[in-house]
Amino acid sequence: MKKKLLVLGLSMAGVLMLSNTAFAGEWKRNNVGWWYQESTGAYPTR
Question: How many domains does the chain have?
Fold first, then answer.
């Protein structure tokens, strides 16, 4: 029983650590179309 709880706990910890979302920038949209804007306000060139 202890082994099952340990495996469950480690599995849950692994899932939580690997599911981080990167909040680096965002997609913008206007009448021209979609573009990506960095968190610094710059636009990537490539």
Answer: 1
Q: Cα 19–24–14 angle (5° rounding)?
A: 15
- Res. 2 pLDDT band, cuts 50 70 90: very high
Q: What is the DSSP letter of 21?
A: P
Is residue 5 included in any domain, yes or no? yes
Q: Which domain holds residue 2?
A: 1-38
Say which DSSP state 13 is in.
H
Q: pTM of the full predicted structure?
A: 0.41
